[in-house]
């Protein structure tokens, strides 16, 4: 089997149930999710398997769920069954709560960074926010978009913030507070 098909050489790509231009809002949304997934893979290579076993398990699960999101967005068939489920959001919320309990309370905004892995996770957070914006744009333009994808991405960006802080904390690296920030987390 060849890796290339040449079917996209004229600027079109396939969805489940149709073909669209490669700059279609759906393609932009799930393409940004794919970019996010790549940054997660990069972050995983930067985490010690023993110290971050729980986080690595989270991230692998998230990678699968992001494939579900992309597939759900790419599905334009008349009869659809979506893969992403509300339970995934509930798991993220529990993990966010656990990771937040692990680190010192936050009073001010922090700068993205710290360790290499935390910095990559902050990049994942910002790409996740962009993916969410792309999904919202798609939802505003097209009625048949599963809203759970937007909700999942919203929660996922919070997870990336919490996990980046936990990574720094476990490695004894302090978050750097934004110096002109007032106390915003009370």
UniProtKB/TrEMBL annotation:
> Does this entry carry the keyword Nucleotide-binding?
yes
Q: Does the keyword Hydrolase apply?
A: no
Pathway involvement of the protein, from the record: Cofactor biosynthesis; adenosylcobalamin biosynthesis; adenosylcobalamin from cob(II)yrinate a,c-diamide: step 2/7
Molecular-function GO term, any one:
ATP binding
EC numbers:
2.5.1.17
Entry keyword set: ATP-binding, Cobalamin biosynthesis, Nucleotide-binding, Transferase
Pinpoint the Cobalamin adenosyltransferase-like domain residues: 3-166
As its record notes, the protein acts as a catalyst of: 2 cob(II)yrinate a,c diamide + reduced [electron-transfer flavoprotein] + 2 ATP = 2 adenosylcob(III)yrinate a,c-diamide + 2 triphosphate + oxidized [electron-transfer flavoprotein] + 3 H(+); 2 cob(II)alamin + reduced [electron-transfer flavoprotein] + 2 ATP = 2 adenosylcob(III)alamin + 2 triphosphate + oxidized [electron-transfer flavoprotein] + 3 H(+)
GO annotation (BP), single: cobalamin biosynthetic process
Give the family from UniProt: Belongs to the Cob(I)alamin adenosyltransferase family.
Quaternary organization: Homotrimer.
Put simply, this protein is called Corrinoid adenosyltransferase
Q: Which organism is it from?
A: Ureibacillus massiliensis 4400831 = CIP 108448 = CCUG 49529
The lineage is: Bacteria, Bacillati, Bacillota, Bacilli, Bacillales
């Amino acid at each position: 089997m060849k890796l290339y098909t040449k079917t996209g050489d004229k600027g079109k790509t396939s969805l489940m149930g149709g073909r669209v231009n490669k700059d279609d809002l759906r393609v932009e949304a799930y393409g940004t999710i794919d970019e996010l997934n790549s940054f997660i893979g990069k972050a995983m290579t930067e985490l010690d398997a023993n110290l971050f076993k729980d986080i690595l398990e989270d991230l692998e699960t998230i990678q699968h769920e992001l494939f579900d999101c992309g597939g759900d967005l790419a599905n334009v068939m008349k009869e659809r069954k979506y893969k992403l489920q509300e339970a995934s959001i509930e798991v993220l919320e529990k993990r966010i709560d656990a990771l937040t309990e692990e680190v010192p309370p936050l009073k001010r905004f922090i700068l993205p960074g710290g360790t290499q892995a935390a910095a990559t996770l902050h990049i994942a957070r910002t790409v996740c926010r962009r993916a969410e914006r792309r999904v919202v744009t798609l939802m505003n333009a097209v009625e048949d978009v599963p809203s759970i994808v937007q909700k999942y991405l919203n929660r996922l960006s919070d997870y990336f913030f919490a996990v980046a802080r936990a990574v720094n904390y476990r490695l004894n690296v302090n978050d750097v507070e934004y110096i002109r920030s007032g106390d915003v987390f009370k």
